[in-house]
Design brief:
alpha/beta; 15% strand
Length: 162
Amino acid sequence: MSSDSQAAPHRIAIATDHAAVDERLQLADHLRNAGHEVLDLGCAAGSPCDYPDQAELVARAVADGTTEFGVLICGTGIGVAMAACKVDGIRAATLGGEYAAEMTRRHNDANVACFGARIHSAYAMARMLDIFLETPFDGGRHAPRVAKITALESELSKSDAK
């Protein structure tokens, strides 16, 4: 994969379950070639890894500021997105195409991109990821909506603590 990304360099955490080890390695190389710093949180080839565990590793790295963005890959991208969104401060989205990659950043300020290795090729994932990383959050009329997500998350966290 060649990189034609124009995104400013970012620090990005990446992980997968056992279904997408090869794709993770290809995307990590793609990101490094584009000038990004990559924190590879695994799964090792041949090791069974449960997607909620891998999603938590990446989500916590993003939530605590260790990295700016996260990338998660499982068979469909759905499980890792669901698990990652359980961590406060995470707005993970399963990307199904280039338009979704752009709009999830532009309108939703997503900070974790999720992919399905059984749905998209590594090349398609790299293209969507480039768009995701290049696209800024529009703010404006979208900022209050994202703030509502954050408030809901905070409210639910407080009720869970009771």
